[in-house]
Design the sequence.
């Protein structure tokens, strides 16, 4: 989640490293964005003073690039044009604010591809432009300080794309055969799909704007003053297809609610403040996976965990949680050849681990009755620094011990039907257990029901038997571990952690089994080496807004 949101919010801040002494009109692009847009990202592209210093320090620490944002100018690489040179092509006319919006969450796939290519420095063809016939619907909206120079830039890009002159409601613009539109609308430079630029025109001619949306305004009022950029999401009306991809990740943190994500850089960290507007009727919508109560689930996990996640209300949110894992897996790209020593591949490993969770989360009457009906909060953990020492699993609280015990056999039957080799097992401390060998996993999964140290009924999916024992009877708890205290201090604001990750330990484990050479993860490794820890936790800001804060600790740039 962190990498994706960082990519979106930096995406529209592609070139401020070229100089911040100039001034723009400072018109908020949200004034030209339709209120119906389900996703909108905006940024201060000419920050000054401490904000500029912090942004450059965090960017350099993460990327080890002298100017870490220039490569993200790929967003302005329209069909037929090269990537613009910031100083020559963009700086002379760009104002202080920039924004990008999607008309539908179905458009998020092409945007994610562009983010991944830009952040990793990969070459992208003209097909990477996020809007048009073969991509999505929406537009980039840029504040301008020199309309003549902005118009010249747009005309040159339109000519290279073979665009023809057209107009809508008296506003002239140019449109290519690939449905990419270029135009000046009021003082904004707009590049996007035909429907995207038309919606901007409608908005500037009096249509409902995002800037005047009550939910957007309310959330923006809580945004920290040091934020460099924001992402606003309103996926309340999204269908299952539209909630996939980036929308699925955002719903992990906000459910079907309005969200504003603020990017707050510092010289030693990068923070995401994810503010969620609570619905008027809590009974009508499930709470997000990472709500305040998820901290309790994390605190009950083994105290030596280097990776831990607490999840709330998994009975209602498990499908969204699984969708988020699928999206993270899709970012890894196609399947690589795997580690020579173990035959492991990142994608096959993720698929093997998520298979039982997908079965638990199926949207069927049987799955809801047999699995989701008894689920409470849940935790995911990993401990150990090598494959032989690894203890990891998913631990789900049960409010009906008989039903969760019966679920062991029912899940075993579903896995067997999908080709897994399943056998009954006897595991100390459990009242029902099976082992399952799935394609892509080098060790068997153990599925068991039992009771934790406090007597709470629990359902466990663990990597081999020691993981089940660690989940049910840990020698210590994270709630009292130094790692949890350090995470709480990093988050601040009185929040307790529901996500903890020690990144060097993760990298050490991946290196030990050869997965850092897997082509699906190798491009991300330099960025992971720049991060020390990840900590996240939630707390209410008032009666209507809850914040989840995610903090990435960064190594100083060498």
Sequence:
């Amino acid at each position: 989640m962190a990498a994706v949101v960082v990519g979106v919010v930096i995406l529209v801040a592609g070139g401020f490293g070229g100089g911040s002494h100039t001034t723009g009109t400072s018109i908020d692009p949200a004034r030209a964005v339709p209120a119906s847009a389900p996703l909108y990202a905006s940024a201060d592209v000419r920050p000054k003073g401490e904000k500029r210093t912090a942004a450059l320090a965090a960017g350099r620490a993460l990327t080890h690039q002298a100017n870490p944002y220039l490569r993200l100018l790929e967003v302005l690489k329209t069909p037929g044009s090269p990537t613009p040179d910031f100083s020559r092509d963009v700086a002379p006319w760009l104002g202080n604010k920039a924004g990008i919006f999607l008309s539908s969450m179905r458009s998020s796939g092409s945007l994610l591809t562009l983010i991944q290519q830009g952040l990793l420095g990969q070459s992208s063809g003209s097909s990477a432009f996020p809007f048009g016939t073969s991509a999505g619907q929406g537009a980039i909206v840029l504040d301008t300080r020199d309309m003549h120079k902005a118009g010249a830039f747009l005309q040159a890009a339109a000519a290279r794309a073979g665009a023809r002159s057209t107009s809508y409601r008296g506003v002239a613009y140019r449109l290519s055969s690939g449905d990419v539109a270029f135009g000046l609308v009021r003082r904004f430079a707009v590049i996007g799909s035909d429907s995207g630029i038309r919606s901007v025109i409608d908005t500037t001619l009096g249509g409902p704007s995002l800037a005047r949306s009550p939910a957007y305004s309310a959330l923006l009022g809580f945004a920290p003053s040091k934020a460099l950029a924001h992402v606003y999401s309103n996926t309340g009306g999204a269908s299952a297809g539209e909630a996939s991809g980036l929308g699925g990740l955002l719903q992990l943190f906000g459910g079907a609610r309005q969200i504003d994500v603020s990017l707050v850089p510092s010289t030693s960290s990068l923070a995401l403040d994810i503010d969620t507007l609570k619905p008027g009727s809590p009974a009508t919508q499930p709470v997000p996976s990472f709500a305040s109560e998820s901290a309790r689930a994390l605190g009950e996990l083994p105290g030596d965990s280097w990776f831990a996640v607490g999840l709330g209300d998994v009975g209602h949110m498990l499908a969204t949680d699984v969708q988020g894992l699928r999206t993270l897996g899709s970012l890894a790209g196609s399947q690589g050849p795997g580690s020579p020593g173990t035959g492991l591949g990142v994608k096959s490993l993720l698929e093997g681990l998520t298979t039982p969770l997908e079965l638990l989360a199926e949207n069927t009457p049987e799955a809801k009755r047999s699995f989701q009906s008894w689920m409470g909060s849940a935790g995911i953990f990993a401990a150990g620094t090598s494959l032989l020492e690894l203890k990891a699993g998913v631990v789900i609280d049960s409010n009906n011990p008989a039903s969760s015990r019966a679920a062991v056999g029912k899940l075993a039957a579903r896995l067997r039907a999908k080709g897994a080799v399943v056998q009954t097992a006897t595991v100390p401390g459990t009242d029902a257990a099976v082992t399952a060998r799935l394609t892509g996993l080098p060790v068997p999964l153990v599925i068991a029901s039992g009771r934790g140290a406090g007597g709470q009924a629990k359902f466990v999916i663990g990597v081999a038997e020691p993981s089940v024992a660690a989940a049910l009877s840990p020698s210590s708890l994270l709630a009292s571990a130094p790692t949890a205290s350090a995470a709480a201090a990093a988050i601040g604001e009185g929040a307790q952690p529901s996500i903890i990750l020690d990144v060097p330990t993760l990298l050490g484990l991946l290196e030990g089994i050869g997965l850092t050479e897997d082509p699906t993860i190798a491009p991300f490794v330099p960025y992971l080496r720049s991060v020390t820890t990840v900590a996240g936790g939630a707390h209410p800001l008032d009666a209507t807004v809850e914040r989840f804060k995610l903090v990435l600790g960064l190594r100083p740039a060498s």
About this structure: The chain has two domains: 2-265, 284-480. Residues 284-480 form one domain. The chain has a mean pLDDT of 83.
